[in-house]
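1st attempt posting a full record on here, be nice pls
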Amino acid sequence: MVVLMSSILIVGANGFIGLKLLQTLTSFKNIYTISRNKLNKVDKSNIHEYRFDISKTWSFKDHTDIILFCATHHQFSKHKNTPIDYVNTNITGLINSLEFAKKNKPKCFIYFSTMAIYGKPREKNIQEDSSIFNPDIYGTSKYFAEKILQHYSSFFKILIIRLPGVVDKVMPENRPWISTVIHKLKNNLDIKIYNPTSNFNNIIDIDNITQLIESAIASKINFQYEIVNMAASKPMKLIDVIYLLKLNLKSNSKIICDNLTQKSFEINIKKLDKLFNFIPETTGEILDKISKID
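the predicted structure (as tokens):
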């Protein structure tokens, strides 16, 4: 692919998403990274690594065309799980990066938010302006971060991408939910699902995230502050999701269905298509990619 920009800064490059993006973002001459610890299993001559706590005084001074903020503290983080930990990374760290950006004026600041901001959705079809109901501390901190970003939107373009569960061929066993299902299927354990006939598209993979980033940067759309939901296209019935995974993994797991508890929803991605002419792969295609045995 033709180089879209000369440089990008990835804040939080040592996380699950950040590390994988380092392998797929090939459209940049130079990639700068910020993380607490040394990057794992990354060996590229165009990667320039910085290590420091983003909630402290920044030591990064290079100019980059794009800033991608994927640093986050959540309930699965390796560090302590106190309110101050959420504030340090999700709020203070973000403000430090925005103050840096205010001085250096990147062409675009891309922020990874989360579908967790909606809390316990009351609507079956979640759009960007859907109501928010009782989010947890993680979702609340990310929603507050979105409001902070809006405050800086007069200085540079800002794109907020609300991510669903991010999946891959190799991912942690305990997140997202689909990873837990795959782990159980591989071990032939019983699986209980709720609302089996409800629609499901609450996943996305790194390839699609990469393509959206490149599409957004290359886009001629004149936006200043935009929020988009991201998810797989063409939702599937939840029971079909489970049986597709079971078939791909050749599992003997027993599937137990319960129709009486827990509300479900699908994610509306029409704005993604309208703004950037981008439609992610289908739910079935992404499930096949992460579960088919080679």
